[in-house]
Amino acid sequence: MPGTQAEPGRTAGGSVSATASRPNDILADYDQGLYYDELFGLRDAPVDHTALIRQRLSSLDFEDLRRRLQDAERELYNLGITFLVYSNKDAVDRILPFDVIPRVISAKEWAHLEAGINQRVTALNLFLKDVYHDQKILKDGVIPAELVLGNANYRPQMIGLDVPFDTYIHIMGVDLVRDRHGTFRVLEDNGRVPSGVSYVVENRHMMQRVFPDLMQDIGIRPVDNYGHKLLEAMYEIAPHQNDPQVALLSPGTYNSAYFEHIFLAREMGVPLVEGRDLVVDNDRVYMRTTDGLARVDSIYRRIGDDFLDPKAFNPDSLLGVPGIMEAYRKGNIALANAIGTGVADDKAVYCYVPRMIKYYLDQEAIIPNVDTRICREGDALQYTLDHLEELVIKPVGEAGGYGITIGPRATKAELDDCRAKLLADPSNYISQPVVDLSVCPTVTPDGIEPRHVDLRPFAITGKSTWVLPGGLSRVAMKKGTLIVNSSQGGGSKDTWVLEGTAP
Known about the structure:
Dna Ligase, domain 1; 4-stranded antiparallel sheet; disordered N terminus; UCP005522; Circularly permuted type 2 ATP-grasp protein; CP_ATPgrasp_2
């Protein structure tokens, strides 16, 4: 629970106390504004669980902090921990900007988030089983049938196909935001090909090398076992349980997350393959090796449905494996994530997840959604048009922060363009209120300043669900911006989940 006692150097209201501040306190002039701060809490109610970390940070020299940051960035570059930005014609790869001040989550908070993520993954897997089998939720009118059956990511090829443990989403990233009152909310679900977990693990390694003095005796839950947990799930779903062969299927070196593909294959100790390395013979999948063909039983795919099998989906795809869909239908290969999961992380379907949770589990959502309006509905469209300058408008099929209009920060020309697009194709958009994302102290050229952050925890599901403690904290490196996406200039922080039991 938040405490009420102000720490040295700051008043209870969050501003600096001139008499109490120390000359070497790098946090003395820090002002979180009106936002919830991940290190300090609310302005009038500081949190207790970060007190020791704040004390250690305050005693650091700012120039030393900047030197450590530069060392970290140099090491990231040397290790090849990069991110491909398609929109930047002047660069191919760049490092993901990294900030050395961590984002810290208490054991109690994490227990709440872990339960909410587990609940959400469970409901979404039940939903996917239902819509590819009996479609009860559609027949009962809980979700509009046309929203699902007419969705571009709905795959009729999956109708009637049973998957191990009824698990469709094996790897899921849930994007969470915290509002100015400190309440976590789900912003969107990522159940197709979620990325970013490699930065979670590498950020921790980086902090252990650069900041061992800050981490000493804090009690932080480890993240190093993600590869082991993923491999374990891939073994569980394999059709052949006698020494199954797992592989990671990548679209290749020009994919924006190719570093992550290499990282995860290494962490699991499995081959990294491309479509050309695999062949289907007699509805079984084999990998080309120097010793001939070797059977593959389970594939963690980082290729979207459209490009996976030119015989079943996009006939022009050169990235996939011809015939793999038929091998999948006959149960000769396991795929994670399952084909057709995209219908569950559509931004319009997202609005109905709390209803899914109630329908399938008879529970209220532990982590609420951000209030969302589906513009395909007349009332929602009219409200959005009437309040355009107050809302965030998102295309349902885009990712990476592309296509978003943030009303309060948009120009008149941008609002007019958004209005025209809404009227032309309302079913392609949702609208949400602007969430005042929480902030975290961040190293900038001008000192320690607040920057907005979100959180993407990762869940792995085989027989059961395991949630990686923490997740990817993305940070909007540009002052004032709310867009944290890597493709839009955002960076990342290490996320510390503190050990201990939640009361």
